[in-house]
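Consider the following assembly input.
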Amino acid sequence: MNTLSDRSRDIGEFVSQPGDEMIICRCEEITKGEIRRAVHEGMFTMTEIRRYLRAGMGLCQGQTCSKLVKGIVARELKVSPADLEPATSRVPMRPIEMKVFANENEDEDE
Amino acid sequence: MISYKADVIIIGGGIIGCATAYYLAKNNISVTVLEASDYIGNGGSSRNGGGVRQSGRDPRELPLVMYGIRNLWPHLSEEIGVDTEYHQDGNLRLGKNVHHREILQGLTDRANKVGLDVRMIDGDEVRKIIPYLSDEVTVASWCPTDGHANPLTTTLGYYKTARKLGARFYTGVKVMELRKVKGELRRVLTDDGSVFEADQIMVAAGYESRKLLGSVGIDVPMTRSLLEALVTEAEPHMFDQMLGTADADFYGHQTKHGSFVFGGSSGFEGFNKDNGTPMTSSITAPAICRGIMKYFPDLADAKIVRTWAGWSDKSADGVPVLGRVEEVPGLIVACAFTGHGFGIAPAIGDQMAKLIMSGTTDIDISALHYDRFKAKI
Ligand SMILES: Cc1cc2nc3c(=O)[nH]c(=O)nc-3n(C[C@H](O)[C@H](O)[C@H](O)COP(=O)(O)OP(=O)(O)OC[C@H]3O[C@@H](n4cnc5c(N)ncnc54)[C@H](O)[C@@H]3O)c2cc1C
């Protein structure tokens, strides 16, 4: 499953481009330029991009933007998007109130 | 397959490995970090609660964390080019009854004995600091110099800056074995058959360090236990302190983003299913929620967006194993942080780099030596 990745391999310099100011992750307001720059700073995986920038860490947990982010990262690394592992989805699948979550062991009372 | 030489090899790309690599690269030492996972910092370093605490720590490791809080944390964001979100607004450990008061008094007395400023305060003083706390809180221990930071940006910031300074990082490469040449540790062998060679090799692979050290006849008594945490959606700003409780119901803080990150336990941490990856259990996050609501009734409506788990590498006596292994020349170890290796990490990186470069440290680490574990009789 794991593949050797040399984090010093040459992917070229970061050069700003038209469209860099476009917002990609709307929940956290992360732009295309920020994502491209992060790749050049060494964030070669979707998981690292997410942890570094918070892209896909907002309310929708990346359900809207993760495809777009993946495309941008793949292009910077000059690989196919299919070669990038998605970031992990985690429980709960929808935001859930603390008071509801906390009720998990009170079934007997109902 | 590659074959590669460096002055120093670090096994493990968690915050300990990345920070040490940074302080070495800053001093022009050629260093290579080997990380088994596909992601930098994918162990405890990206999963922790962000506490930068001195209070509650064992006197053997306290001088290190105090050194880091004085000298490294305050300017770390500028140094590693990320927002570490470091806050030094104090740590409150909360209590509600006589039993809690006894626990807190014990912790406070121990801290004062080693010169750390921790005070007992009453419920009204607590609510002056955080007005949202329930009236049931009657007592707390208060350490004004504790704080918290963002483990994700801090770990990746050390990585990014070390990399920029020329440190080499390989991910997705698992070290299988350490190998001596003529009595000195020189080589590491990896799962894809590569051989890396260096003059000094540091093992910072969390729990997995035990197996690696075993390949050169060294044993560090540790086990691994699961820790779990959760994060809420962003809420209006409430407080900047780090929180815990005498009963360990939960701990956590509000992040710069507005979300609350809380950790806690179900009581079954040492007995979780271990299928190789750290998995949340269905009973823990609800238990953490119940713990939080006992102290913060207002948070009952806050929505949880994510839960996760991570391993803690627990040493037999609760403090890390640190420093040179004299029996194996060339070997340095930094592991067994026992669930509190984030706050101390900058100091560890700084001091391990010094040890590697000059053979000595500024802070005495002799009480954390690998050789300290003796049979009980
Ligand atoms: C839920 C949770 C909450 C926590 N809360 C706090 C807190 O509030 N404050 C605090 O100070 N600490 C906290 N901690 C503890 C803290 O996260 C850890 O002590 C710290 O991250 C340890 O860093 P590390 O680099 O030693 O370990 P890790 O981050 O685990 O890094 C070790 C790395 O070594 C790699 N590795 C393993 N085997 C090999 C191999 N054979 N070859 C190559 N690489 C290998 C692993 O993949 C891993 O990336 C918490 C931990 C958890 C899980």
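Chain B has a mean pLDDT of 95. Ask yourself how this observation constrains the way the partners meet.
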